[in-house]
Specification:
alpha+beta; two-stranded antiparallel ribbon; 2 helices; 5 strands; globular
Length: 86
């Protein structure tokens, strides 16, 4: 887990606040993983999913908040900042 300082500055965000949120989400994701649960986000919604070997993962919980999906790709842009896929 790490925070991109230059990107936070470009977005006008408090780096410490972003770090606090990222640490919390990372901690919960690790706890979920230890139980065999995947944190899933896509098309604006989030869920917790468990692979029981059936024809699709069980949705064990729906999450509040905006969860965007995609392949998660990122890279440096022409302005030198790291950006996700469009």
């Amino acid at each position: 887990m790490y925070v991109n300082d230059a990107e936070c500055e470009a977005a006008g965000l408090d780096t410490k606040e972003v770090e606090r949120i990222a640490k919390g989400l990372s901690r919960y994701a690790k706890q979920a993983e230890a139980l065999g649960i995947q944190v899933f986000g896509g098309t604006g919604s989030g869920s917790l999913r468990f692979n029981d070997g059936g024809s699709g993962k069980l949705i064990v919980a729906h999450l509040a908040g905006d969860f965007d999906g995609g392949d998660g790709g990122s890279g440096p842009s022409v302005d030198g900042l790291e950006r996700g896929e469009t």
